[in-house]
Design goal:
single chain; about 350 residues; mainly alpha; 3 domains; four-stranded antiparallel beta sheet; 4 strands; about 55% helix; binds iron/sulfur cluster
Length: about 350
């Protein structure tokens, strides 16, 4: 087991390393005595994923052992499966994939040179393609890459208009993409693999052993729920990031999955129901409306916890933090921006009553 497995625990080689080391997540969870560090890191992994959109350990000086980091991944998958809350699996998979994307794009730019920063185990493009069974579907073409059209369609189906096949150079069943676009497609491949079997069916004895951890997670999300204080819909006071996403949605652009999730979770968090979100987004046609409604229903559940949308740091990582203004300098979360803007503006007429 090495730091490559710790940084990319979804790789097949990481799973094999866990098996070869005779490490059984179920035994670690059910172990007697103090909570195993891998369980602790698993809880942190899920909390960070759902609240901050990343699974990186916080910058608090604490360092986790390689085996702890690797084992925390299957434990986090069990925890997120047990949460049984709308949007949790999707957001967790997106955060894992975003963190992996940040790491592999950095690794590809600075190949392994034995420096301590990577522990001598950075990931290469070829390794990632091989692990995902994509080495025959992706070929280098000068500075660009050719991607098998079936693979391209399966990975780019949720992307915007720029990714539609009619706008692409296609020959002999191969679509040309830039290096940055290939990295985007690989991010989606990672997200799909992570989400593939989730939620897992968790044996009852493991669920019982994780009871305390689940309560801990649920209370973190309740603390982070900003929606109780917001009951006014005033789109003109939205933070610039949400104004931009809303405008793209109204222009009938197909937003990337993470951006659509961000907008929908923001709107659900300020109390909008599915019909109000569709109306505000000016989505009327049945195909697009049905897809968005399904997304809203996954994100929003009026009976249980609503997960807050990502923080400013996560939006910055996604390139969705745009047109920052003065208020942005004072906040770390788009919901706080909106709360402050409402407070400062006193009485405003709700958009639903105009
Ligand atoms: S700083 Fe935060 S609130 Fe402002 S645009 Fe960026 S993500 Fe939105």
């Amino acid at each position: 087991m090495n730091s490559l497995h710790a940084r990319y625990p979804f790789l097949a080689s990481a799973r094999e390393a866990v098996r070869d080391a005779n490490l059984d997540p179920a035994a670690v969870i059910a172990g007697e005595g103090e909570r195993h560090p891998a369980v602790e890191r698993g809880v942190e992994r899920v909390r960070r994923a759902l609240l901050d959109g990343t699974v990186r350990a916080p910058d608090d000086g604490r360092r986790w052992a390689t085996s702890t980091e690797v084992l925390s991944y299957p434990i986090a998958r069990l925890l997120v499966s047990l949460l049984n809350a709308p949007g949790a699996v999707e957001k967790y998979a997106s955060a894992e994939a975003t963190t992996a994307y940040e790491r592999f794009t950095a690794d590809f730019e600075t190949p392994d040179d034995g420096l301590k920063s990577t522990g001598g185990t950075s990931l290469t493009l070829q390794q990632l393609l091989t692990d995902f069974d994509l080495s025959e579907d992706v070929v280098a073409r000068g500075d660009d890459f050719g991607v098998d059209v079936v693979t391209y369609i399966s990975l780019a189906s949720d992307y915007g208009d720029d990714w539609r096949l009619v706008t692409r150079q296609l020959s002999d069943g191969v679509v040309t993409v830039s290096q940055a676009e290939l990295h985007e497609l690989l991010r989606t491949a990672v997200e799909m693999r992570i989400a593939e079997d989730l939620p897992l069916s968790v044996p009852s004895e493991i669920a019982a052993a994780l009871d305390e951890e689940l309560s801990e997670l649920e209370s973190s999300f309740t603390d982070a729920d900003f929606s109780h204080d917001i009951d006014t819909l005033a789109p003109e006071l939205f933070p610039p990031c949400m104004t931009a996403l809303l405008s793209r949605m109204r222009d009938a652009e197909t937003l990337p999955s993470h951006s659509e999730f961000t907008l929908v979770s923001f709107l659900a968090s300020i109390g909008l129901d599915a019909n109000e979100i569709l109306s505000l987004c000016e989505v009327r046609e049945s195909g697009r409306g049905d897809r968005l409604r399904a997304r809203i229903e996954r994100v929003r559940d009026e009976r249980t916890t609503q997960f807050a949308p990502p923080s400013c740091a996560t939006l910055q990582a996604y390139d969705d933090c745009v047109n920052q203004d003065q208020r942005c300098e004072t906040v770390t979360h788009p919901l706080v921006y909106y709360e402050d803007a409402l407070d400062e503006n006193g009485t405003v007429t709700d958009w639903r009553d105009r």
